């Protein structure tokens, strides 16, 4: 690097080389960024091209069948709705409750920081390990069998860390001055949290919940381990019924060798992606609304 | 109260895995588990050597990292140093969608598109189920994770450091690679480790696309079985409670849990110990 004396020509050569390398690098990073984008486009086009012709009203309202022409996703769609309903009922209150405690109430104590560290670590545990836990505790231990309830409890444990972390971030973003003002008016800590902090943080909390649920909708591995059956020709009527869900039905069709079943899998994937994209769009709209309000 | 659920979950995972793993090791000596080079719980004579499953896992995870680490890092540099604000605001949601696609969809894509159209073009002898296609798709799957965590670390590098380098006549390339990347190194390395841990724990892509035969090999065009795929494929069959096969799920799960847990802890330590404070 150390060039003590340089002529104008040599200086020009050097800087132009620098500029060339710099713009080559720019091209390289741009291309790398496009890898993900191109991959996403190819994947979408491929799935839609494979699955489009199977996608009609019959596909949505029929039960799975051994004959591809008759097969549909009714039981999987209902299973997904049941599972997600119960997962939301269990995970939302628990997760938001834990976040409120950790953010608003918990004293500074080594045990509390240990809990926080523990939650971040849980978010990194492979989902299939949650399946093993669910199999041992809910399916066998509590004898729930391969039911919607066992699945929902397993899923809740899986998404709890995501909900807690997101809700904590949302609570952290509420300015302290609001809390002080509420205390100054004589409100208790609970009144402050319930009437002042929570309404302010609500959009952020909801966004986190939606994203966590959309993660759960796509999860397959833990449900395979707890034994969600793949061939089910009825819709659940109680939380203790057996069930199947969209990703499991997709997996079942993918693993068959016949080309028709693989196209059916593509059709099920289209339905799954439409549900997911709708949920993500909802979360993004909520987030934008929230940002605009807090800026204004 | 509510927060204790998380502690309960961790304890639950550890206790459940420990109990069944201990009864597994009553039948199978620990030394056989880590030194036997065959994994064949369903055949006589039975073999319980975890090595083929671990090597399958590492082969796929390593391949995924070869794809994801350079591409993810370059994406992060582009997003944090080059991209104008508007472009970044369109690219970010696209990467988030990529990260949110269910893994069963990636598995479908690996098996029905990547294997016939890419892997078989490279090597016509490749097996239908092969490590290469699973690794490639898994690599793409973890790009957003590497990119967004690394980008966060780079954005946190103060503007003044960049301005100082530009004032000395540095080009954008020099500023990115010699100032920003070293300053954000702890965050970048942590993102690499977390991505590797994610790749080791990923299940559906390998269950669908990598195969179901435990295979001690370094050839990516052969089929391999990973630890996660073994757990999933064994759960699909009928394994009676209390049988040795049932216990293998927990022993393999324990190995998987320990590996990812250690990686996550290391990532956390790297961030804490080596973070540059500005």
Tally of strands of chain A: 0
User: Would you tell me the overall average pLDDT of chain B?
Assistant: 84
- Element-level helix/strand string of chain B: HHEEHHHHHHHHHH
Q: Largest interface, per-chain counts? A: A-B, 81 and 79 residues
- Order of SSEs of chain A: HHHHHHHHHHH
Overall shape of chain B: globular
Helical segment tally of chain B? 12
Q: How much of the residues of chain A is beta strand, in percent?
A: under 5%
Helix fraction bin of chain B: over 70%
Describe, in plain words, how this protein is organized in 3D.
The complex is a heterodimer of chains A (296) and B (278). With 296 residues, chain A is mostly helical. Chain A contains 11 helices and no strands. In chain A, α10 runs antiparallel to α11. The relative contact order of chain A is 0.13. The mean pLDDT of chain B is 84. The two termini of chain B are 37 Å apart. Chain B is mainly α and 278 residues long. The interface between A and B is large, with 81 and 79 residues.
Task: Set out the fold topology.
The complex is a heterodimer of chains A (296) and B (278).
Chain A: H1 8-51, H2 57-61, H3 74-105, H4 110-123, H5 127-141, H6 148-172, H7 176-184, H8 189-218, H9 221-226, H10 246-254, H11 259-295
Helix pairs in contact in A: 1-11, 3-6, 3-8, 3-10, 4-6, 5-6, 6-8, 7-8, 8-11, 10-11
Chain B: H1 4-27, H2 30-35, E1 39-40, E2 47-48, H3 51-82, H4 85-100, H5 103-122, H6 131-155, H7 159-167, H8 172-183, H9 185-201, H10 204-209, H11 227-236, H12 244-274
Antiparallel strand pairs in B: 1-2
Helix pairs in contact in B: 1-12, 3-6, 3-9, 4-6, 5-6, 6-9, 7-8, 9-12, 11-12
Index terms:
heterodimer; A: 296 residues; 11 helices; B: 278 residues; two-stranded antiparallel ribbon; 1% strand; globular
């Amino acid at each position: 690097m150390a060039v003590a004396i340089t002529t104008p020509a040599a200086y020009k050569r050097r800087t132009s080389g620098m500029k060339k390398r710099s713009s080559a690098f720019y091209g390289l990073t741009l291309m790398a960024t496009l890898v993900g984008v191109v991959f996403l486009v190819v994947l979408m086009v491929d799935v839609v091209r494979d699955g489009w012709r199977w996608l009609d009203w019959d596909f949505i309202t029929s039960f799975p069948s051994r004959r591809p022409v008759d097969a549909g996703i009714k039981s999987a769609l209902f299973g997904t709705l049941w599972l997600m309903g119960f997962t939301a009922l269990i995970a939302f209150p628990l997760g938001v409750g834990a976040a409120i405690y950790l953010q608003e109430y918990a004293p500074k104590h080594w045990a509390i920081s240990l809990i926080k560290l523990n939650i971040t670590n849980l978010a990194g545990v492979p989902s299939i390990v949650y399946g093993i836990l669910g199999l041992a505790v809910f399916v066998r231990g509590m004898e729930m069998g391969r039911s919607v309830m066992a699945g929902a409890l397993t899923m809740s444990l899986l998404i709890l860390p995501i909900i807690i972390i997101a809700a904590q971030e949302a609570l952290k973003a509420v300015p302290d001055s609001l809390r002080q003002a509420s205390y100054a008016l004589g409100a208790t800590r609970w009144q402050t949290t319930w009437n002042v902090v929570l309404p302010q943080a609500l959009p952020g909390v909801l966004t986190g919940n939606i994203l966590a649920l959309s993660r759960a909708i796509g999860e397959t591995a833990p449900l395979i381990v707890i034994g969600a059956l793949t061939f089910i020709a009825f819709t659940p009527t109680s939380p203790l019924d057996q069930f199947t869900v969209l990703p499991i039905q997709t997996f079942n069709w993918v693993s068959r060798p016949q080309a028709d079943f693989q196209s059916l899998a593509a059709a099920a994937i289209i339905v799954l992606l439409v549900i997911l994209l709708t949920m993500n769009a909802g979360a993004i709209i909520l987030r934008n609304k929230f940002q605009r309000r807090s800026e204004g | 109260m509510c927060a204790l659920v998380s502690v309960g979950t961790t304890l639950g995972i550890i206790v459940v895995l420990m109990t069944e793993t201990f009864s597994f090791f009553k039948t199978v000596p620990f030394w056989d588990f880590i030194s036997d080079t065959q994994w064949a719980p369903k055949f006589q004579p039975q073999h319980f050597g975890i090595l083929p499953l671990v090597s399958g896992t590492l082969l796929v995870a390593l391949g995924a990292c070869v794809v994801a680490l350079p591409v993810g890092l370059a994406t992060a540099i582009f997003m944090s140093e080059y991209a104008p604000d508007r472009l970044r605001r369109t690219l970010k949601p696209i990467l988030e969608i990529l990260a949110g696609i269910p893994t069963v969809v990636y598995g479908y894509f690996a098996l029905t598109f990547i294997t016939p159209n890419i892997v078989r073009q490279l090597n016509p002898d490749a097996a239908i189920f092969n490590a290469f296609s699973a690794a490639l798709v898994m690599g793409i799957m973890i790009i957003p994770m590497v990119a967004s965590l690394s980008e966060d670390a780079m954005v946190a590098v103060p503007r003044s450091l960049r301005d100082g380098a530009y004032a000395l006549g540095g080009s954008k390339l020099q500023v990115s690679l010699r100032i920003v990347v070293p300053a954000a190194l702890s965050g970048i390395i942590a993102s690499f480790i977390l991505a590797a841990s994610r790749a080791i724990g990923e299940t559906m892509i390998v269950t669908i696309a990598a195969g179901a035969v435990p295979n001690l090999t370094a050839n990516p065009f052969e089929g391999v079985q990973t630890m996660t795929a073994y757990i999933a494929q064994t759960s699909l069959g009928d394994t009676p409670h209390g049988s040795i096969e049932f216990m293998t799920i927990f022993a393999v799960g324990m190995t998987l849990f320990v590996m990812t847990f250690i990686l996550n802890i290391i990532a956390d330590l790297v961030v804490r110990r080596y973070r540059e404070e500005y």
